[in-house]
Amino acid sequence: MPVVASVLDLIGNTPVVDVSHLSPNPRVRILAKLESQNPAGSVKDRIAMSMVEAAEADGTLQPGATLLEPSSGNTGIALAMICRLRGYHLKIVLPQNVTAERRQMLEAYGAEIIPSPAEEGSNGAVRLAQKLADEHPDWVFLYQYGNEANPTAHLTGTGPEILRDVPEITHFVAGLGTSGTLMGVGAYMAEHAPHVKMYAVEPPSGEHVEGLRSLDDGYVPPVFEKWGGIDALHGKRIVRPADSIVWTRRLVNEAGIFAGISSGAAMAGAAKLAERLEEGVIVFIVCDGGWKYLSTGAYTEDLETVIDSIEDVIYF
Amino acid sequence: MSNTVNVRIPTVLRPMAGGNSSVELTGATVGDVVGELVGVYPGLKENLVDEAGAVRKFVNVYLNDEDIRFLEKLETAVTDGDEVAILPAVAGG
Ligand SMILES: Cc1ncc(COP(=O)(O)O)c(C=O)c1O
């Protein structure tokens, strides 16, 4: 491997591992793309880099600038790494019900944390960040949920890598957050391998969010709407905490892949899909490693206890 | 033909649904079940469906955890013991 000048040069080009022995259908292969191998530990390194570069290129981001971003963790951590190296100040609006490790990672990279109420979940963090951005027009608000550079990073990076490494792919499964991964990879496949079907998994986050006044406080990211949304997907399902944890454990115990809980959810979605297919090759995304979820007991504690306590934690 | 399904109510809607976290209802399709739900708890109606009777944009309805927008939407048939979940759309990231 060539020596690189900066960890930022290590973003992307992630490896794919065959985990077909976990497939419930012998005629369906399942392959894991390890985004956990990115330098700050998640798939979000890609979009953080692409959003910063786009903002530097168009002049939005000037030397010494202050950035503001709502994030349940990974985007914030990725931005924090980049801002450290590029000399920007970073403020992350972070819901209070994320794991301690997410907070600690942000602190390690020198980001300032602005807490948002746990009862309002991620939607509350987005709302608070929008309010703060209005009040501080001098802060640069990249806004991952509405930033074209988010899906574009997957259109030009993740998508081509997958088709290059797994030309036989038939189905793609990933977690749905900002929708950047699914919309960007989907747009690439629509152009270069239109037979590939796109499947989203999501946690039942909305079930326990108490701080909503009505369902109109729900939130659909502009990226999702602009990049095809529902029409760009072939299926979307909830994966509940129990299944997510069980599959997170199977990944570590039976494939040695120490992944985060949303990756367990994606694997659960891939397994469910495999049961229904005649044959095929499913690629799913391992968004991050397990490090930031150790404190939840997800890997070793009594299963019932973990499932109960994880319901109140944001892990997407 | 009518089948009994369990409907999960999210926290945000419970005050409009008699405080219940789930309700047993009957119907042949998801639409029937949602119709029964808003019949019993009229306060829920404007939260769930628009004037045209379609599921509102910020609401996701799932049958056995599958988003009904990828099934037959409100026309999706239900069978005994199915579970319908109603959830507000939430951002991740
Ligand atoms: C752990 C984890 N899983 C899944 C996702 C979903 O990715 P995306 O925002 O590209 O939809 C995210 C980010 O939102 C995440 O941090």
What can you tell me about this protein's structure?
The complex is a heterodimer of chains A (about 325) and B (about 90). Chain A is an alpha/beta fold and about 325 residues long. Chain A folds into 2 domains: about 5-40 and about 150-310, Rossmann fold (3-Layer(aba) Sandwich); about 45-140, 3-Layer(aba) Sandwich (Rossmann fold), CATH 3.40.50. Chain A is about 40% helix and about 15% strand. In chain A, helix 8 (about 240-255) crosses helix 9. The longest helix of chain A is centred in the middle third of the chain and has 17 residues, at about 150-165. The two termini of chain A are about 30 Å apart. Chain B has about 90 residues and is α+β, with helices and mostly antiparallel strands. Chain B has one domain (about 5-90): Ubiquitin-like (UB roll) (Roll), CATH 3.10.20.30. Chain B is built from 2 helices and 5 strands; from the N terminus they run ββααβββ. Chain B starts with a strand and ends in a 5-residue tail after the last strand. The model of chain B has no long low-confidence stretch (mean pLDDT about 90). The interface of A and B includes residues 75, 233 and 316 of A. The site of pyridoxal-5'-phosphate has 13 residues of chain A, from helix 6.
